[in-house]
Amino acid sequence: MKKLLYSTFITCFLVLASCSDDDGGGDLIDFSTSFSSETVGLSESETSKTISITFSRAATEAGTITVDFTGNNAEYGTDFTTSPGATSSSLTIPVSVGQTSATFDLNKLTDPLEGTTASVSFTISAAIGTDWVIGNPAASVVSFTPVAASSGTLEPEVGGPNQPNMVFLDLSTQQQVSARRDSWEIAFYNGTENRVFLNPALLVSAAELEGITDLNVVSSVLEFEESMNFYTLNTTTFQPEEVEVTNVEELLIGLPVGYSQYGNLAEGIKFTDDKEGSLEGTAFGEISTTAEENNVFIVGLGAEIPNTTPDAGAIATTGDHRGFMKVRILTDGDNYIVQYAELDATTFEEVTIAKDVSKLKTAFSLTSGETVDVEPAREAWDIQFPSVYSYYGPFGGFAGAGLTYSDYVTHNTLGGVGLYQVLSYEVDGEGVRTDYDVPSYAEFTLEDADDSAFVYDDRAVIGSDWRVSGFGGTPSVKDDRYYIVKDASGNVYKLRFTAVLSANGERGYPQFVYEKL
Amino acid sequence: MRIYPLLFLCLSPFILWSQEEVQFSDSTRITELDEVVLTGESKVLSVSKKLFRVETIDSDDIKQLAGNTLADVLNQNLNITVTPNPSTGRSTISMFGLDGQYVKILLDGIPLASDNGMGNNIDITQINLEEVERIEIVEGAMGVLYGDNAVAGVINIVSKSGLKGNKWAIRTSLQEESVGSEYAWTSQGRHIQNFRLSHQLFDATQISGGISRNDYAGFFNDFKGQNYVNIQGGTVVNDGLRGMEWNPKEQLTTFVDVRQKVGKHTFYLKSQYFDEELTIYNHLVNGRLNSNGEPNPTANDQLFNTHRWVNNLNIAGSFLGPTTYNLSLSYQNQKRYVQEYTYNILQQGIEAYTLDQLNQSSDVYFSKGTINNILAKSKRFNLLTGYEVSYQRGFDALASGNYSTNTSTNTLENYDLFAHLDVLLSDRLSVYPGMRVTNNSQFGNQLIWSFSSNYDLENNLKLKAIFGSAFRAPNFEEFFYYFVDSNHNVQGNPDLQPEDGISIFLNADKKWMHSNDNALLSSAFRSFYFNLKDKIALVGDDSGDVPRFLFNNVNKQQILGFSLNHNLRVKRLQLGLGATYLGESLTLSDSGNGENSDYVWSLNLNSNVFYEIPRWNTTLSAQLKYTGRALSIVSTDDNGMELDRTDAFTWLDTTAHIDISPQFDLTFGVRNLMDIVSVDASNVSTGAHGVTGSDSQLFGNGRSYFLKLSYLLTFN
User: pLDDT per residue over A330-356, tens digit each?
Assistant: First the structure.
């Protein structure tokens, strides 16, 4: 009987053991190292560049990577150095446990002579660790001058799920410039017209106080001589309601951008710039050369950039409201004069800002009282990732609401860049797919480009429509569309998005590819 | 003189305690006593048939269906709908259209801790049936005896009672099952192994232990698995086909129990450990290009690991003559861990772990005690009194919302006292009033009552009226949810009150016997009515500076229904037929007119056939359930009602059970013969964003085939 008992036991446990495969994802993938880019160019102003080597996964043990290099019109020690330093054209980079990439710096000591080029070719020659392998690309060429790029993969440094940065990208040189979204609130137009823009990436808003030209009379307790009438969207019933505003305090409730922001589109009342980014659509209107015609505005300073980390795939882009200030803008020849103060202050500051024709706009921080270097030169960017974007406009079936988007993309309409969207198919509400007779992205050639289709009067053609919104799920890139871009020099590119999330599923790591036609 | 047998009939077969009393006094020999105790014991843990109409799924039914989890067998119940959720892998039940939060699930009379509550809202795929003697289903509000959340009904799972006659028993079984048409030795289908060992240690001591493994490889349906990616023209095309329709899970249940008899007292200790691994494959593929400009497709998958540890101790016996007591103590612990990782599809391995944390945890201490036959000397009165105490401590990161930082630990305490009186007014008429006082640390005192009455007419006709009340305690999400940003303001409400419910059941049971043909026909007609007030809903709140959505006690719900059941037994044939016609009416706070809506009606039918072939030791069976088109009210105003709809479907299981030898038995059959995978549905109610919900509801894996081989070895 005992024998039978034992054999029953053994059979049972063999059966249990034989089937208990690990149902999880499985083993880790191989560890390989590669350069993150095959070609890198330094801009005129840059004297050093960080070159990064990415790993296929986080290192589970410490090791080293050896990188060899050869100079082309560039000699180590006289034209450039590296850090960590190199011996006999080779440098060694340590890798510690947990690292997902390694970097080294190239420091440029001299500029190449006019008309010549200089570059350094780096090659990963060894990756020393258990079963470490060298992946592709194993080589990267760093040029001392900007590289004229005809195609590439760009990863705008939006900065993750808080999307803290607005990023400007130049397709012809692959250069990107970024600034924190909260570094400025208003920007002055440097063209012939006198215009002031609000920062849509920070949810800045502005309301005009009709007939009030003295900043010092404005405070949070000011009662208006005539009441103002707006619509607001009740966010619990989702029905528009009329509101009557008789003083500043009541106005402040409906000034911040949000679904319930006050406005009346039928009468042209809105507290934001228009979505398209036109000169005519600014909330401040045209700044008059006659001082008495320029009223005081109350500016909502927008929403703080939070520093909380949301769940993978989600965003946290709008934090607490940053408060209100009173602002009046005047002109003086080719200068703007900005008068501003805290809402309840009895005195105000005044700053004169000269027009800088090399740039489209000059950004200004009301909190620091200084201009801020945000935009590159007008021809040095084609595409912008404001990342967060807000405006007051129609929403679903409602006449108006203050809307905020993330993952937003615009193009440089004021700088003469045109762009249009090519839609390859559409799926309607019933799930029926209609394919359009257009070339695929890969097949698209210069002959297919339609010069009349480029849009120069709406910067929000790409907008947030390149991805499926993450509401109630993870966002994903739409594969039904790509874009044709014509820069101010007449170069035509095709462009499509390839990622909205990092490999680890975090939002705020967009990626797109483009190719000159 | 007739009064005595009738009194006995009323009291003894259905009152556990009285029966034991008789048995204790009768039993003199220890061996006999043991058997008596064991059968008596499972009654101790049972629901009283005197007070309620109890429907039983016994071990033969479970065997016939080869049920491994509670989800496998509850499908066929007339008033229960099992709703699986493919995205979370959970299956919950609704009873009379009330969801799982209103149904309390007990293990041997003790509420089972779950990831979302105490006894209620339980994932029934996590309840293993290998050690189960029977499942008792009781419908109606039963707050007096079972406390909070026993609103729609109670499901009591009664453990197997142990050895009968032998010193050793070993039972093993293997079960192989296809998932729809998908089956492979390890990678597809469902694979179940069970092992159980019981031993009579001493004359008054029994121990058992066992293990059960349920490996469900998931259901692909039209999906293409973990390693699928569609790359076209150098980029990933997200066709949504990666992953699976139903995600795979593997469950392991182990248990040990000890039964000990000491004089007039029995001790029963049960310790059960449950472990589940659920892998959720993302349908979405992230098609980032690597630095070569080639796609490096990855997916963000999740692995949920749930542990549940249940320790129940039951002590029952008698003191002071006929007065008996029953004491239960329980400590339960439930934890859910989540791992999120980045799966590299081309390299078929993990690139990074992005999250590894405990996201739900609860510890539950529970005790319940009753004393019965306090008025033993009275012939017309009997009294049962008892207490119930529970202490829960835990947190749930999922329920409190992504945006919440308020995932800190919360505690909930309940202190209850209850009493139940039996009054025999005459030979035929008895009434049973009961009352419970609850003190809850979150919402203070509540009073629950019940009133049952039995009236026996001649000709085997019995009438029973049951009035009961119970409340549903607000859940974690309703108390603590938090989602506030520039456009949203949705918050839980710590000041919520429980939802109060009462139910009325009127039953008429009639039996006809025909002795010549060995035929028995029993019929039951029931009508029932539920009235729930202070129902919790998420409603707009304009009272503060900022409009917001807040959970509040605002709605009312009425449920009205009629059911008819017939059961016919003729020789080897058993035939069942049932129908329920159920209506629901809501009074919604935002309906404007504040009036009850019209009733919306649905029809459910079930039927089962068992046929025994003694020559082959075989039982054939077919069980069918028709779930009629289900409507639920989303909103209602003067223009009419907006309804969610789930279309009708029919579930049919057919099985054969063969006793090959005293040791071996074989069960095989077809589950879901009608090949139900999903049912058309419309869900318009998906919140403020007006996102249109899915247009179908998944119910099954399609037609599946199973084979189960069991081996029982007994020796001394």
Answer: 999 889 999 999 999 899 999 999 999
Domain range for residue A106?
A: 32-146
Same domain? For A491 and A444 the reply is yes
The span from the CA of B630 to the CA of B80, in Å, is 12
Instruction: Find the residue in A nearest to B712 (Cα).
Output: A8
Q: Which of A306, A50, A373, A49 is nearest to A160 (CA)?
A: A306
Pick the closest to residue B260 from B190, B315, B300 (CA basis): B315
Peptide bond into A84 cis (omega under 30): yes
Tens of pLDDT, residues B353-400: 888 888 888 899 999 999 887 777 777 888 889 999 999 888 777 666
One-letter identity of residue A412: N
Q: Quick one: A327 and A191 in the same domain?
A: yes
Q: Which of B248, B286, B352 sits opposite A57 (nearest CB)?
A: B352
Work out how many domains chain A is built from and give that number. Answer: 3
Say whether both A343 and A196 belong to one domain: yes
At which of A340, A372, A404 does a domain end?
Answer: A372
Domain B3-715 fold: Maltoporin; Chain A (2.40.170)
Exposure class string for B580-602: b at 16+ Cβ within 10 A, else e: bbbbbbbbbeebeeeeebeebeb
Please answer yes or no on whether A29 and B713 come within 8 Å at the CB atom. no
* CB neighbourhood size of A429 (10 A): 6
pLDDT band at B7 (very low <50, low <70, confident <90, very high): very low
Q: Both tokens of residue B504?
A: 């009325």
Reading the block at residue B211, the tokens are 């293990």
Please report, as a single letter, which amino acid is at residue A56.
S
Please, which residues 449-488 of chain B have a Cβ atom closer than 8 Å to chain A? 485-487
Show the low-confidence residues of chain A (pLDDT under 50): 1, 10, 12-24
The reply to whether A356 and A385 lie within a common domain is no
Going by their DSSP bridges, the two strands B499-514 and B461-472 should be labelled as antiparallel
- Compare all CA atoms of chain B with the CA of A1 and give the residue at the minimum distance: B715
Indicate whether A140 belongs to any domain.
yes
In a domain, A100, yes or no: yes
Asked if residue B5 has a cis previous peptide bond (ω within 30° of 0), the answer is no
Nearest to A33 by CA among A100, A98, A85: A100
Contact A89, A75 (CB under 8 A): no
Alpha-carbon distances of B673 from A13, B94, B181, B259, B318, rounded to whole Å: 33, 23, 12, 41, 50
Domain assignment of residue A105, yes or no:
yes
Q: Chain A within 8 Å of B543 (Cβ-Cβ)?
A: no
> Per DSSP, what are the bridge partners of residue B340?
B302, B355
Rg (CA), chain A: 28
The answer as to whether A12 is a domain residue is no
DSSP letter for B23, please. H
Whole-angstrom distance, CA of residue A210 vs CA of residue A224: 9
Domain boundaries, chain B: 3-715
Regarding an ipTM greater than 0.85, the answer is no
Nearest residue to A144 via CA among A115, A117, A171, A175: A117
Q: Do residue A335 and residue A187 come from a single domain?
A: yes
Q: Of chain B residues 264-303, which have a CB less than 8 A from chain A?
A: 277, 279, 282, 284, 286-293, 295-296, 298, 300-301, 303
Among A320, A353, A372, identify where a domain stops. Answer: A372
Kind plus residue range of the DSSP H or E element containing B646: strand B640-646
Residue of B238, B293, B355 with shortest CB distance to A476: B238
**Residue for token pair 């008892």:** B386
Token pair in block for residue B61: 């039914």
The pLDDT assigned to B637 comes to: 66
d(CA A247, CA A262): 14
Q: Report the length, in residues, of chain A.
A: 517
- Which is it for the CA torsion B432, B437, B438, B444, positive or negative? positive
Residues A365 and A494 in one domain: no
**C-alpha closest to that of B399 among B366, B365, B362:** B362
